[in-house]
Amino acid sequence: MNRFFEYFFKRPPVVFPLISVFLLVICIYDIAQWVGFDRVMKIYWLRPLPVVLYTFFWIAATFFKKWGAVAFVILAILHLVAVIFLKENEMVGRLLDNFMVNPVPLGLIFSFIILIYFRKIR
């Protein structure tokens, strides 16, 4: 357990664990908000999926895994492109539209942070 805290909190820059905790909290909130309720259509149970993927890849980047960093950047770009081009379809627009895109594209901001520290990631 001590080794986990060392690799997660001490080794990476302070921004990485802070964003990891933020994404984890938002991920849990989003899952609790949408999954398992009969009042929403079953397709909306997939709404937390991008946030779960963002969280998973960011935590991998926090442990300095290059595949996690690259996957996070690609996911952020694909998510933003999908929201921009599929916005006219009402159901898909609501399904993809979350805090990582609107009002500020946090996924891209976090991607720039990854790219700043990309040389340190193995």
Q: Layout of SSEs?
A:
Blueprint: H1 2-10, H2 15-34, H3 49-62, H4 66-85, H5 90-96, H6 106-116
Helix pairs in contact: 2-3, 3-4, 4-6
Question: How would you sum up this structure in a few lines?
Answer:
The protein has 122 residues and is an all-alpha fold.
Plain-language structure description:
With 122 residues, the chain is an all-alpha fold. The protein is built from six helices and no strands. It has helices at residues 2-10, 15-34, 49-62, 66-85, 90-96, 106-116. The longest helix has 20 residues, at 15-34.
Strand content: under 5%
- Number of separate helices: 6
- Return Rg in Å: 15 Å
What is the helix fraction of residues, given as a range? 55-70%
Tell me the distance between the termini. Answer: 22 Å
Number of strands: 0
Number of domains: 1
What structural class is derived from the secondary structure elements?
A: mainly alpha
Tell me about the largest β-sheet: none
Q: Give the CA-based shape.
A: globular
